[in-house]
């Protein structure tokens, strides 16, 4: 079930100053060859904004014909392999590669000593991650050496012959061991810009937020609840493992074909380590099999390039599933403490919280995750008096960084559990309590920033509660025998309904959109319009990574809408065009979509200028009317056709390229946390319905209904897919997904046998109610949609399980032993 509420109108996009290809000089007028007709008023290009055209990659993917990065092949390529540390923290005493080099078929073995440039580390913000370990390893699975061989099995066997002697060191595995007086320093001598602002070198970044007077507000509170919560380490679990191919070039550079989320960020990190200028490293996006944040950091990019440059041969690296768990960052596990106060009539008085994120061995995106966790820690509620502290630790656990929801997921789980506690203490309906405190447009966040676009928190709660509930005892059948697939435990046949209790729970969340805290968030687009086979065709070229989210579909929709054409080609993403930023933070449709819209507008202006120069003498409307491009024609706003695009263009293409930025943000104050930190916010609410076998602790989620405001559904079908996908990842965190790390900081379940993700049998019905309340600051009024449903789905499921069992359940994922307290 999908419902859509549309606004009366969509605001125009704010356009930055143009810097496009100049229009051609005026020429002798040429009479149009096609007789002008009249178009129906409001006619739009088929497959434009607001439609749901077929994804160009969709059929290929579902039929297994799509070429992913792991499918690449070069006839003379070598295979790369990585030797990784079996220890979480150890000194490298000695390293002997002689036996590996002697193996037939091996072309090279590289260690830290073979790195060609002075720069040996890389990182998104803090360059603290070694290309290859030197002196010591800081986490289980850290890369130590590389092998290139003529067969992948030869490379693996050679890597196993590298002899490394380790001396194990004390492990830093939690806050206590990280901040102890005698704690080993993971990065002694830090000189990054966060180092001087943290109270201990093992703290990556710390962000306090103070607003109002929490002490005075607490004194006024008639009810105060506190809680301690914990979120486990979740993996992005993308199905396409890390892979890529590096091909050495005749100019001494390298061509890299890679599955990534951010080509230009990769390039910025790769070039200094290879000792090459950026223009000698040409990057092209290969087929990406999912990302969810896990491809924002480098994995094997530098390794493949090093091996290719040393051997002079193309080198392909493909991780298997086991190695993939060590090859990318994960969601930060977190421990959270919260205190909320309220009056007896159900109004929040204050909030205090402390959020401790485990960043693992290297910084990755931890500073930005801390900023998100802190600034969004109060949730979508009106709370004037707050004291907030969020920090990320360096430990010897696996590195953690970007994952869908980016710090807001952990906070949402805790503050929504608190809302249910308060509602119970006040004997109020949990939805009504949330609605009494729901923010709206104009509400000031704890950072002091006012929400200046629609914030329909109370409305999406109302809508999700109003949806029909699934029928009771869904396992009952007309024949009498239960359908055990609808029961907890499913086909394991653990129950026929005895001991099964239904629970219903609600949650709502707030997520920022786009890069924040003063980051220069922009995208570049290049658009070319020309006649091919007698028909106008637009070519859109950006560096935006298509990772499965449907960006290439939306970019084509925008070009059809703005240029009035049917045929749109999408150029492969590469670094031959300016940066599009990362495919993350729910930003690509907003920012790169904004860039495509803006550059299409520049092209349209050039088309009209050329039309006026060539054909203006044949009709006065060229000089006086508001002109549009629709259905391959130049038309007046009254629908009169002046010329075909093919006539206007002739044999001379029109091309423009420019950058587009959203309005600027600013860094949070390091002492008070105040500042205009985020450009936009998105909101989603969920209702979860579960059946719980209270005797065995098994859970069956039978429905996860969602209501979400998306501003403008650019592609309604894709929007619903994003909401359902994000909801399913939140379900996984709620009841099954966790990377298990033991006290020695070793990963115990690096496989899809032991790390469980929801299958189609686990995924419930997900009805979606889509609101479209335009944000006047955004292109088409759209709002980033991909992450918000990942926030509220997890606490909604936990609220439903609590309702069924009466258990507190302060940790996710919840396991059977938590429910039955074995």
TrEMBL record:
Residue stretches making up the Aldehyde oxidase/xanthine dehydrogenase a/b hammerhead domain: 63-170
Gene3D superfamilies reported in the protein's UniProt record: Aldehyde oxidase/xanthine dehydrogenase, a/b hammerhead, Aldehyde oxidase/xanthine dehydrogenase, molybdopterin binding domain
Stretches for region Disordered: 1-56
Record-linked InterPro entries: Ald_Oxase/Xan_DH_a/b, Ald_Oxase/Xan_DH_a/b_sf, Ald_Oxase/xanthine_DH-like, AldOxase/xan_DH_MoCoBD1, AldOxase/xan_DH_MoCoBD2, AldOxase/xan_DH_Mopterin-bd_sf
Pfam families per the UniProt record, alphabetical: Ald_Xan_dh_C (PF01315), MoCoBD_1 (PF02738), MoCoBD_2 (PF20256)
Ranges of compositional bias, category Low complexity: 1-12, 22-38
Name of this chain's protein: Molybdopterin-dependent oxidoreductase
Lineage of the species this protein comes from: Bacteria, Bacillati, Actinomycetota, Actinomycetes, Kitasatosporales
């Amino acid at each position: 079930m999908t419902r859509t509420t549309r606004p009366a109108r969509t605001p125009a996009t704010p356009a930055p100053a143009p810097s496009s290809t100049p229009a051609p000089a005026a020429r002798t007028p040429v009479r149009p060859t096609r007789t002008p007709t009249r178009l129906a008023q409001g006619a739009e290009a088929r497959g434009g904004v607001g439609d749901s055209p077929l994804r160009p990659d969709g059929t290929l993917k579902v039929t297994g014909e799509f070429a992913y990065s792991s499918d690449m092949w070069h006839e003379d390529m070598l295979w790369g392999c990585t030797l990784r540390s079996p220890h979480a923290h150890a000194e490298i005493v000695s390293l002997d590669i002689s036996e590996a080099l002697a193996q037939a078929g091996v072309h090279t073995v590289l260690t830290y000593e073979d790195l060609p440039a002075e720069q040996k580390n890389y990182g998104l913000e803090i360059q603290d991650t070694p290309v290859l370990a030197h002196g010591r390893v800081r986490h289980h699975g850290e890369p130590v050496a590389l092998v290139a061989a003529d067969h992948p099995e030869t490379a693996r066997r050679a890597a196993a012959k590298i002899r490394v002697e380790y001396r194990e060191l004390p492990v830093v595995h939690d806050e206590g061991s990280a901040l102890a007086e005698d704690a080993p320093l993971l990065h002694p001598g830090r000189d990054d810009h966060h180092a001087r602002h943290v109270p201990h070198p093992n703290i990556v970044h710390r962000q306090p937020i103070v607003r109002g007077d929490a002490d005075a507000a607490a004194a006024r509170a008639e009810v105060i609840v506190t809680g301690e919560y914990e979120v486990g380490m979740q993996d992005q679990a993308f199905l396409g493992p890390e892979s890529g191919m590096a091909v050495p070039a005749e100019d001494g550079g390298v061509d890299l074909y890679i599955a990534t989320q951010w080509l230009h960020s990769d390039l910025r990190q790769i070039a200094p380590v290879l000792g090459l200028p950026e223009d000698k490293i040409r990057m092209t996006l290969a087929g990406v099999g999912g990302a969810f944040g896990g491809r924002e950091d480098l994995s094997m990019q530098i390794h493949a390039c090093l091996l290719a440059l040393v051997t002079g041969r193309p080198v392909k690296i493909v991780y298997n599933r086991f190695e993939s768990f060590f090859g990318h960052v994960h969601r930060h596990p977190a421990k959270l403490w919260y205190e909320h106060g309220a009056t007896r009539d159900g109004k929040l008085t204050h909030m205090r919280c402390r959020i401790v994120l485990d960043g693992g061995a290297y910084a990755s995106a931890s500073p930005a995750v801390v900023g998100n966790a802190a600034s969004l820690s109060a949730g979508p509620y009106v709370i004037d008096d707050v004291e907030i502290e969020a920090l990320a630790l360096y430990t010897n656990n696996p590195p953690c960084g970007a994952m869908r929801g980016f710090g807001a997921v952990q906070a949402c789980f805790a503050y929504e559990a608190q809302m249910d506690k308060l509602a119970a203490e006040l004997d109020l309906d949990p939805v009504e309590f949330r609605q009494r405190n729901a923010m709206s447009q104009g509400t000031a966040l704890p950072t002091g920033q006012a929400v200046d676009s629609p914030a329909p928190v109370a409305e999406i709660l109302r809508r999700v509660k109003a949806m029909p509930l699934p029928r009771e005892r869904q396992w009952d059948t007309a024949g009498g025998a239960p359908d055990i697939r609808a029961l907890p435990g499913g086909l394991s046949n653990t129950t026929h309904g005895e001991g099964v209790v239904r629970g219903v729970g609600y949650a709502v969340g707030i997520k920022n959109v786009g890069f924040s805290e003063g980051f220069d968030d922009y995208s570049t687009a290049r658009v070319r319009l020309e006649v091919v086979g007698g028909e106008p065709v637009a070519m859109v070229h950006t560096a935006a990574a298509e990772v499965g989210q449907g960006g290439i579909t939306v970019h084509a929709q925008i070009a059809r809408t703005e240029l009035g054409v049917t045929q749109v080609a999408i150029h492969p993403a590469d670094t031959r065009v300016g940066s599009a930023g990362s495919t993350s933070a729910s930003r690509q449709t907003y920012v790169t979509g904004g860039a495509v819209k803006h550059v299409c507008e520049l092209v349209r202006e050039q088309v009209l200028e050329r039309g006026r120069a060539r054909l203006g003498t044949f009709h006065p409307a060229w000089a006086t009317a508001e002109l549009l491009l629709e259905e391959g024609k130049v038309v007046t706003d009254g629908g009169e056709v002046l010329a075909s695009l093919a006539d206007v263009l002739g044999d001379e293409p029109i091309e423009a390229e420019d950058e587009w930025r959203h309005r600027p943000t600013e860094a949070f104050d390091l002492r008070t946390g105040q500042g205009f930190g985020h450009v936009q916010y998105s909101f989603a609410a969920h209702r979860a319905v579960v059946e719980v076998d209270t005797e065995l602790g098994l859970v069956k989620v039978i429905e996860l209904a969602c209501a979400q405001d998306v501003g403008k559904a650019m592609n309604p079908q894709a929007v619903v897919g994003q909401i359902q996908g994000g909801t399913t990842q939140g379900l996984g965190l709620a009841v099954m997904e966790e990377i298990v790390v033991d006290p020695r900081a070793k990963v115990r379940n690096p496989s899809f046998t032991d790390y469980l993700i929801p299958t189609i049998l686990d995924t419930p019905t997900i009805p979606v109610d889509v609101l479209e309340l335009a944000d006047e600051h955004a292109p088409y009024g759209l709002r980033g949609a991909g992450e918000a449903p990942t926030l509220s789905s997890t606490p909604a499921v936990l609220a439903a399980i609590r309702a069924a069992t009466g258990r507190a359940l302060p940790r996710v994922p919840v396991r059977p032993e938590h429910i039955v307290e074995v």
